[in-house]
């Protein structure tokens, strides 16, 4: 099953096709910003039963440069079989489209990123036939963007940076910078980013940080993740309201029984009973009102 971080790591390029230029510059490889980008079919299936699909495929064009194909793979762990698949993608794309292929691999952990970034040669060691050298973006080389001003310069790059740094100790500061900028970003631009970041956090602890920031900083957003957070908060609020009502009813019952039995209730004891929110404690006190001689008998052994 494809995980949500897997989807976010390559889908951000579909939503922001020009993102590759910023990523490549951040990784120390310069590509001219494309003047035209077209999302291509991702199905690389042969007529044989074998089926292969690249995660995202883009056709990039720039002035005074030949167009090329950019295949983007989101890689969650080391997988030796992927090396042959990536080589297949490159040769297939070149054969089908007669355009030079480029492979970008996006990772969320350093070990996988370093594994994917190795140069791999296929063929006899005396004369390798193919050389695979993907460009890799991951926590080992993507910028850590904690300054809202930097986020504002390139929101798409900041989005991918946040996703790749999901395990970074500074992830809270990274995500806070994102919500600071998203508050002032037009909804049609910000909403997809909100969802991509939520997907990218997956089941990491950072997901809860993002949810809390969404609830506080971006509470006005109408998006699936925001609506989910609000629904949970509403349910929690209703549960808290019901519990509070039960506690108040129990406290009133305790005070009424004591008064009916003529037991003196000092102000401090009345306050203690009235403000107690623990239903189990209140139930115990209510039982004791039937035999209590003084109000202190309610609090015995507590």
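Sequence proposed for the structure above (302 residues):
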């Amino acid at each position: 099953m494809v995980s949500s971080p897997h989807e976010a790591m390559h889908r951000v390029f579909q939503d922001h096709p020009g993102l590759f230029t910023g990523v490549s510059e951040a990784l120390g490889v310069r590509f001219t910003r494309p003047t035209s980008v077209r999302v291509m079919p991702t199905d690389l299936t042969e007529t044989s039963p074998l089926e292969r699909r690249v995660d995202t495929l883009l056709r990039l064009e720039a002035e005074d440069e030949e167009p090329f194909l950019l295949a983007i793979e989101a890689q969650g762990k080391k997988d030796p079989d992927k090396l042959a698949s990536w080589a297949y993608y490159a040769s297939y794309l070149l054969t089908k489209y007669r355009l030079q292929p480029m492979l970008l691999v996006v990772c969320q952990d350093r070990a996988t990123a370093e594994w994917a970034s190795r140069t791999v040669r296929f063929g006899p060691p005396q004369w390798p036939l193919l050389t695979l050298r993907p460009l890799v973006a991951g926590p080992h080389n993507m910028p850590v963007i904690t300054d809202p001003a930097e986020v504002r310069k390139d929101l798409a790059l900041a989005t991918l940076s946040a996703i790749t740094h999901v395990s970074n100790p500074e992830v809270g500061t990274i995500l806070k910078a994102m919500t600071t900028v998203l508050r002032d970003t037009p909804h049609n631009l910000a909403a997809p980013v909100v969802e991509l970041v939520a997907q990218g956090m997956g089941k990491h602890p950072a997901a809860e940080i993002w949810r809390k920031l969404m609830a506080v900083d971006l509470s006005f957003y109408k998006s699936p993740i925001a609506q989910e957070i609000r629904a949970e908060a509403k349910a929690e609020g209703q549960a808290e309201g019901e519990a509070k009502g039960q506690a108040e009813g129990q406290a009133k019952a305790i005070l009424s029984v004591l008064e009916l039995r003529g037991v003196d209730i000092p102000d401090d004891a009345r306050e203690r009973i009235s403000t107690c929110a623990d239903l189990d404690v209140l139930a115990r006190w209510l039982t004791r009102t039937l035999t209590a001689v003084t109000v202190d008998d309610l609090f015995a052994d507590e």
